[in-house]
Backbone:
């Protein structure tokens, strides 16, 4: 990443600039040691993606950046769950089920969930945004830039990216903090698809931006809620747009 691109990234994701970190399906039943999808879990761990998600979450906590964890689950009786695609029907037959309230839908280690994190659980669909509370929460938080991490690069991650872009958010994807199967699919998908609509970066570049000297605007000690309220009020006067224009 060149100097100008790095400066642009730093501006987009600065902690007081309306950035939110989203983790996608980083739950025990997906990327944990007892995953329903052992191949995906193995790639998420061996590639370093899961560890990088944990690093980003820890850094977000330190930098006062809001974290949202998007979890996919289903009721034990299956009510409301999709059955209109082969993926859903196959998931319903897996030996490990993502049942609401079970350990399978808890956030996987080594990711640490802080009290201020928001966990959004969906019972249907493929996307962490479509038909969930995530978009409304992002707007209420004054989000302008969404950092997308997690799994899988096959389905949920690109869904999250496309839905966020369609809703006017600037999207940043640390390519080493997402994973899919087979392992070589992820870099090809990033290069040929996500790079067309999102800013592709690395975990270290994001961490470097958050560790950089903070601007004077943070010196007044304003809380995240205060800053978000100011951004939302400003956007409301402008008609509620979230696009950077």
Residues:
């Amino acid at each position: 990443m060149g100097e100008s691109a790095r400066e642009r990234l730093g501006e987009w994701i600065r902690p007081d600039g309306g950035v939110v970190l989203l983790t996608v399906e980083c739950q025990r039943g997906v990327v944990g040691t007892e995953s329903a999808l052992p191949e995906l879990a193995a790639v998420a761990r061996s590639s370093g993606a899961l560890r990088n998600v944990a690093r980003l979450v820890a850094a977000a906590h330190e930098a006062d950046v809001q974290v949202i964890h998007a979890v996919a689950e289903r009721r034990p009786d299956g009510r409301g769950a999709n059955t209109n695609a082969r993926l859903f029907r196959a998931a319903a037959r897996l030996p490990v089920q993502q049942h609401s309230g079970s350990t399978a839908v808890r956030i996987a280690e080594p990711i640490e969930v802080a009290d201020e994190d928001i966990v959004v659980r969906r019972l249907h669909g493929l996307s962490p945004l479509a038909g969930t509370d995530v978009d409304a929460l992002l707007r209420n938080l004054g989000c302008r830039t969404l950092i997308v991490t997690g799994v899988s690069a096959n389905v949920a991650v690109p869904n999250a990216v496309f839905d966020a872009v369609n809703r006017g958010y600037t999207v940043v994807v640390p390519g080493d903090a997402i994973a899919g199967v087979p392992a070589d699919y992820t870099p090809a998908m990033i290069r040929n698809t996500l790079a067309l609509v999102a800013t592709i970066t690395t975990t270290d570049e994001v961490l470097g931006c958050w560790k950089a000297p903070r601007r004077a605007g943070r010196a007044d000690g304003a809380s995240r809620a205060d800053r978000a309220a100011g951004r939302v009020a400003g956007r409301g006067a402008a008609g509620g747009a979230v696009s950077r224009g």
Remarks:
- The two ends are 23 Å apart (CA to CA).
